[in-house]
Amino acid sequence: MSHIKLGSGKGAIIANPNCSTIIALMAATPLHRIARVERMVVSTYQAASGAGAAAMEELRSQTLDMLQGRPAQPKIFPAQYAFNLFSHNSGMDVESGYNEEEMKMVKETFKIWGTTKDALRVSATCIRVPIMRAHAESIMLEFERPVSVEEARAALAAFPGVSVIDDRAANRFPMPLDATNQDDVFVGRIRTDLSRADGRALSLFVCGDQIKKGAALNAVQIAELLVTKK
What we know:
Helix content: 25-40%
Structural class: alpha/beta
Radius of gyration: 19 Å
């Protein structure tokens, strides 16, 4: 936000990024700062809260119906939501095969990091899952140089707004329930990606509250930052 000028007397609009992008980049940005990310592949597992209160009620009511032997009655989504998952319900570009949610992640990452598709390659697959609140994301990052798990874990642990849950021995990693109604984004499953033999790729699993850091909290934090810049 260093380019934003206050006190100029001119109005301006600051766009809050898409919830999936915010959650992904809270994990990826501290790593991008220690070694430039050259490629990012993300799969999202998005909760009902991302589609609003009516979608949350649809998940609740469908779950009750099915547990009591009644058929699900889709209204908000085109398919049964309870005990099911499906491609994100945003508009689909038939030619490219990517939906609007996926392309938001691609374009907003370029904008937030101030880069282009020539310097960074991004691909996303967005899925709606039957979780009430908090999105989860699987992220693979390729870097300009090798990055160790220890270096990555230290960078993540020191980054404001990120909490690390990464206990391999106990098989304890982030869950949507950890992130629900929490300000922080939770990161774990930090490991060297085996698809590269040179140590230049890491895989992560991330959970963040779509309503808090994914939307309202982020807007408040932007406003607070602007106030402190006066």
